[in-house]
């Protein structure tokens, strides 16, 4: 193995736009192959260790299914089952797992944890969500945006409005959308807006891509947006703030049919799920014609298949059309 090729997937910021486009193309090929029941066995004989410090439906099922569809195997490892952090350090866990598996995927409480795993692992480490980022979600989101592009538009023509809190999905979308030259709006109450450090990263992307960033508390900014995105108003570790958060966000930042009308007749709705209906979004919007939330969920599987293939091949050699 040529370790100089080792690349982790902790954030899309570690990837060029071209590399992200390559992953998106691979997603397209593998999604088509799945429809034809002809997925190439590119992960045959390989395995992915999946560490979960937090619960998950989509991330767990999509990685496990992706490994299996590609001819490989996935191991679910919760901190209750392995020595992680109790009897064994992160550093040793990373080195031991890397001697046995081909990819490590970790959903962790703190970014530092997945960064340490990556530092000590000799196989690719994928960030399956941390307190700061959710990059695998964003590959699914970009692909879903491409599948639902308005007539005659390309990704860089889109204006995306993320309504709500400065969540890990929001940060990752902000970074990826600005890298692709989109106009990204974070619309939320001042106290919960994207910190300057995130805006600095997005603005650096914008200098290269020609995109735009707007951070505002003005909900009227949804007007003319192509995509409206919502996320939970509170997450693990924020339970104590639950009441104050709900009071701050509801009703102004709840996605309703009325708000979708305000965005424009062709605007679509996205949500990484799970959603708390009647909190950040109404059930009517989730079930409505503009909602693409279940396409988005399905594309988690599309993304994980591509990531397993891309990172495994990248570790050894660049993927080629012939190999795919
Ligand atoms: N969107 C997402 O990451 O879902 P899970 O928490 O179910 O994995």
UniProtKB/TrEMBL annotation:
Per the record, the coiled-coil ranges are: none
Xref: Gene3D superfamilies = Aspartate/ornithine carbamoyltransferase (3.40.50.1370)
In terms of superkingdom, the source organism counts as: Bacteria
The Aspartate/ornithine carbamoyltransferase Asp/Orn-binding domain covers 157-311
Domain (Aspartate/ornithine carbamoyltransferase carbamoyl-P binding) spans 7-147
Which terms under GO biological process does the entry name? citrulline biosynthetic process; L-arginine biosynthetic process via ornithine; putrescine biosynthetic process from arginine via N-carbamoylputrescine
What EC designation does it have? 2.1.3.3
Question: What is the name listed in the Swiss-Prot or TrEMBL entry for this protein?
Answer: Ornithine carbamoyltransferase
Which organism is this protein's natural source? Vallitalea longa
What's the name of its gene?
A: ptcA
């Amino acid at each position: 193995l040529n370790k100089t090729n080792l690349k982790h997937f902790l954030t899309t910021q570690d990837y060029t736009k071209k590399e992200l486009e390559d992953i998106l193309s691979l997603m397209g090929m593998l999604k088509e192959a799945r429809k034809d029941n002809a997925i190439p066995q590119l992960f045959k004989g390989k395995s992915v260790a999946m560490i979960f410090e937090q619960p998950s439906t989509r991330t767990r099922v999509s990685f496990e299914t992706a490994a299996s569809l590609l001819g490989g195997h996935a191991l679910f490892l919760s901190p209750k089952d392995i020595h992680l952090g109790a009897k064994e350090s992160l550093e040793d866990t990373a080195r031991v797992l890397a001697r046995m598996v081909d990819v490590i995927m970790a959903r962790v409480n703190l970014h530092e944890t997945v960064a340490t795993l990556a530092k000590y692992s000799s196989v690719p480490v994928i960030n399956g969500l941390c307190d700061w980022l959710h990059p695998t979600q964003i590959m699914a989101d970009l692909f879903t945006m491409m599948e639902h592009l308005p007539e005659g538009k390309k990704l860089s023509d889109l204006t995306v409005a993320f309504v709500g809190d400065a969540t890990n999905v929001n940060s990752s979308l902000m970074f990826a959308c600005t890298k692709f030259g989109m106009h990204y709006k974070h619309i939320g109450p001042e106290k919960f807006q994207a910190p300057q450090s995130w805006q600095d990263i997005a603005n650096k992307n914008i200098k290269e891509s020609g995109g735009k960033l707007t951070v505002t508390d003005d909900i009227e900014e949804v007007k003319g947006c192509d995509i409206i995105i919502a996320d939970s108003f509170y997450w693990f570790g924020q339970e104590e703030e639950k009441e104050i958060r709900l009071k701050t966000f509801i009703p102004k930042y709840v996605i309703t049919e009325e708000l979708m009308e305000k965005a424009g007749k062709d605007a679509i709705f996205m949500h990484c799920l799970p959603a708390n209906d009647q909190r950040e979004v109404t059930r009517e919007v989730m079930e409505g014609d503009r909602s693409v939330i279940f396409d988005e969920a399905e594309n988690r599987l599309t993304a994980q298949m591509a990531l397993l293939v891309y990172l495994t091949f990248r570790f050894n050699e660049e993927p080629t059309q012939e190999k795919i």
